Amino acid sequence: MTRTQFVIECLKEAFRGGWAVANTIASVLALGGGYVAWQWPTLGGSINFLMWAMPLGALVIFVYFGSLLAAHRLYQQQALSISEQSRQNDEQESKRRESLYARLRQEYMLSHDGLSPALIAGLAPVPPDWINKRLAELGEKWRV
User: Fold this and answer.
1) What is the pLDDT of residue 48?
2) How many CA atoms lie within 13 A of 133 on its CB side?
3) What are the C-alpha distances in Å from 103 to residues 111, 122, 135, 142?
4) How far is the C-alpha of 118 from the C-alpha of 124, rounded, in Å?
5) What was the pLDDT predicted at 49?
6) Which of 125, 141, 137, 134 is nearest to 104 (CA)?
7) Distance CA 47, CA 52 (A)
8) How many whole angstroms separate alpha carbon 132 and alpha carbon 117?
9) Using CA atoms, how far apart are residues 18 and 38, in angstroms rounded to an integer?
10) CA atoms within 13 A on the CB side of 31
11) Nearby residues of 135 by Cβ (< 8 Å), 6 or more positions away
C-alpha cells in the first residue's frame, strides 16, 4: 500500500464517524465557543468571524483528529490481518511437514527389514539421520 493510498484510507475511515468523532466535534465547539466569547469584544463583534472562522476551524480539527483515529484503526486492522495470515501460513506449513514426515516414515518402513515392534506401532521414531538425508534429497530446508 502506497503512502497516498494509506492517507486516502485514513480519510475514508475518519468520515465513517463514531464516538471519537462526536467527542472531537464537541470539544472543538466548546473550545471555539469559549475563545469567541473571550475575544468577542476585541473582535468588534463582527458576525463574519463567527460565520467563517468557527466552522473552518472546526472542520480542520475534525479532519486532523479524525485522520489520526482512522490511521490507528487502519493500522490495527492491518496488523490483525497480517497476524491472522501468518498464523494460517504456519498451520499450513505444519500440516505439510507432518504429512511429509508420515510419508517418509512409510517409505522407511517399506524399505527396511527387521523393524522393531515399537517402530511399527509408531511408538519409536524413524532414525533422524535417515529422515534428514531424505529431506535433503527432497530439497527441504528443515530437519528433525
Assistant:
1) 63
2) 8
3) 12, 13, 11, 15
4) 5
5) 64
6) 134
7) 9
8) 22
9) 30
10) 12
11) 100, 104, 142, 143, 144
DSSP line for 1-32: --HHHHHHHHHHHHTT--HHHHHHHHHHHHHH
Q: How many CB atoms lie within 10 A of CB 86?
A: 10
The mean pLDDT value for 25-53 works out to 70
pLDDT tens, 88-141? 888 999 999 999 999 999 999 999 998 888 888 888 899 999 999 999 999 999
User: Averaged over 28-50, what is the pLDDT?
Assistant: 70
Q: pTM higher than 0.70 for the full model?
A: no
First to last CA, the chain: 38
Q: How confident is the model at residue 82 (pLDDT cuts 50, 70, 90)?
A: confident
Grid cell locating 10: 485514513
Rg of the chain on CA atoms, in Å: 33
**CA 23 – CA 16 distance, rounded (Å):** 14
